Amino acid sequence: MRLMRRTRVGILGAVVATALVLTGCAAEPAPTPTPSPSAAPPVSPTPTPSADPLAAVDALVVRPTVLELRAGEEVVESLDYMSDPSEAVAVLTALFGRPAAEEPYDGGNHRPDGIRHAWGDFVLDERFYDEDRRQRDGYDWLIWPRFAVYFDGPVAEGIALRAHDGSQAGEEWAVLAELPSFDPELRVCVGTSIEAETIQVPGDSPDRANVVATENEDDGTVRWIGAPEMEADGCA
């Protein structure tokens, strides 16, 4: 009897153990928590470098009181003839991509010493007027420009050189003379006026600044175009 009882107990334990094993196999495993991905930091856009406005300039246009740097018909920058010549030279050096060829010169009775800054057929003529006298006598006007410009040809370093009406050095003088802006009656001491602008000057002085052109009489072409030249009562 004892043996039979023990056997039954053993069988019952095995059945219970088997049931527990089968129950454990059938149960769904507990899900493993997945960590949430951390939010990526916002990416700042890379700033685009601003384009150099001088890179678009394709023409220098001479006017009575300023030199215009143009991209098509848009004026990108204007250089006033009464402004600091060193600043104008710096702008033009950046435009042409190289320093100018420089030629100092001695003045005379009607013109001070100066220095010519040339990029091919474009010349900026820096003039060393007496600044103390300029201020004392009220000559801070185009009567004594701090620099002038000259176009000796139609192009310099790939940049077109022209007047406001399109005139260029090297073209036929007879064609220039037919333009409405051509004014041989307006007295200037160098060349012929092809554009005039009225400005305010001290006293009773003539009040028109001019772009002028000169003729090459050997071949009947325009020798050069430049500015500024003031209207004059008379020429010495």
From TrEMBL:
Record's PROSITE patterns?
A: PROKAR_LIPOPROTEIN
Q: Establish whether keyword Signal is in the entry.
A: yes
Q: Which UniProt keywords apply?
A: Signal
Annotated signal sequence range: 1-26
Biased composition (Pro residues) is annotated at 30-50
Keyword set includes Signal: yes
Ranges for region Disordered = 28-51
Question: What is the protein's given name?
Answer: Lipoprotein
